[in-house]
Amino acid sequence: MDQIDRSLLDHHDEKHFTSNQVVRDVIIGVSDGLTVPFALAAGLSGAKVSSTLILTAGLAEVAAGAISMGLGGYLAAKSEEDHYMKELEREEEEIITVPDIEAAEVAEILAEYGIQPHEYTPVVNSLRKNPKAWVDFMMKFELGLEKPVPYRAIKSALTIAISYIVGGIFPLLPYMLFNTRADAVFASVVLTLVALLVFGYIKGCFTGGKPFKSALETTAIGALASAAAFGMAKVVQ
Q: Global pTM?
């Protein structure tokens, strides 16, 4: 039976998307990068300042935003890593100091899946003979924690920061190419809305949602943010 199962597994290639953390970081970075500089440029346009000033302020915001978002991603990932290591040490200590209680917890977890005592008792005994597997089991099934990817904090910071910069280029690019503010504003709106539509669609494909719905939602959020900033600038002015 074991050979049959292994043969089936060898010929079965499951196409699951497993880089969810990277996708999450890219989504955070690009979505904010598209929306915040776009709203800033729209707000300054509403105040009728020059294209040069809009571009300068926009680039400054992109730089500051990338650093801030990247730092936030680093701290969040580092906190998750520290939490995992703290809980790992606790579980390693508990299987030594209170092994019977930990074994009972394993049995309780397995029972929740409908496994009967005579079926899970050999599993519990096997885990007690393998401390590393026992701790891994408790981390995953009792605490719901996955082992952090090496250098996850640094990778998260860089991914979010770079994604933010990439997203921030779109609303500011027209201000580099057009001399008149009116042309730059119009081109920025069109380019950014198209970028939001495409990004929203791609996001929906990767996250398993409805791509067209995701595209419309992402675009609507960006449009509302820029409209609010533009309207606020008009009111203040």
A: 0.76
